[in-house]
Amino acid sequence: MRHPNLEQELQRRGARLESCAVTRVKDFGDAAREAQAAFDHGAVHDQSFAARLAVRGRDRVDFVNRLCTNDVTRTSDRTALTAAMTNAKGRVLDHVSIYQRSDAVVLSGSESQGTSLKQWLEKFIVMEDCVVNDLAAEEFRLLVFGRSVPDVLVSVLGLWPATAGDGSWPVARSRFQDGDVFVVCVPAPFGNGALLQGPHEISGRLFATLADAGLRPVGSEAFEQVRVESGLPALPREIGDHSNPLEAGLRRSVSFQKGCYIGQEVVARLENYHKVRRALSCLAFPIEAEPSELGEVFVELLRIGEISSAVRSPRLNATVALAFLNPQYAAPGTRVYSIVRGEQIHGDVREFPVVR
User: What pLDDT shows up at residue 189?
Assistant: First the structure.
């Protein structure tokens, strides 16, 4: 859900909308310049349709802990963790950021996943003192990322959260005009990523202030370019019921010390017996390669995997792709090719991620 005041601010800045499952901002007139500005300085990206849920009740921490791959008991109002929500086969339903407020465990997930994630959680409430609330009707969600974000947030909100360490992410709360804003650091292109959540009524003014302070508004097209160049997996291309957390590059989101969770036996077996058959990898092809036409990946005559996402990168003068590869062939420098209309398009495996 996008509040009218944020909608008006996006339109004032030249947003061009695209309708798919939701009405996303495609771009603000020039996706290439938006991506370059994100690389050079920093960006603000509207995530109005992304999942954001609050689990309330006496058993909330234990309940969420039993349904995800990471140790929720380590979260607090100052510390967040990322986690995968997996089914009984260890396949990923969504990848979420989790932190606590005074009365709730808050989960922030992928676009258009709010309803399905809420329904999935509610299936497991039997005798627990828990209720799952959808925050989309109450709160906005913006993603900021890039080199200038710490300085901008200090200027606008008066803070940049201190590093949490120990595999966790810092969380802070600030006041903007007449509303509280939660700042939750998350993995994002070029680091310095943070989700901003707060009451809808201040969303338009906050977006305008962040943009005026130097963060370039970016739409879905530019964000996809920086996401792929940064090696970040996303639903449904790299994350979904076709992959497990270890295949999808989500090892940091898995605790191998915590107790049982749905899918835990499968994930633990994959780890303990070295059974992970695919590894998410970064590839680079000539910039002339059409991203949408790249598919299967080969070494000599052996099929070693398949591309999940690809974009043209003028910055790197290449077509950059994310692909699931046989781990034996995922070492940086490995020469590979894809076949497009009968022609071999040669490339190589790059360090993962391509850009930090």
Answer: 84
Residue ranges per structural domain of the chain? 1-275, 277-350
Alpha-carbon span 183 to 48, nearest angstrom: 16
| Full-model pTM | 0.94
pLDDT given for residue 165 in this prediction: 66
Q: Which fold has domain 277-350?
A: Elongation Factor Tu (Ef-tu); domain 3 (2.40.30)
| Residue 197 CB-half CA count within 13 A | 27
Q: What is the pLDDT of residue 353?
A: 63
Residues of the chain with pLDDT under 50: 355-356
Neighbouring CB atoms inside 10 A of 178's CB total 9
Distance (Å) of CA 155 to CA 15, 143, 167, 172: 25, 17, 27, 15
Helix (H) or strand (E) holding 99: strand 92-101
CATH class for the region spanning 1-275: alpha beta
The residues near 18 (Cβ < 8 Å, ≥ 6 apart) are 24, 25, 26, 220
- Count CA within 13 A, CB hemisphere, residue 141: 26
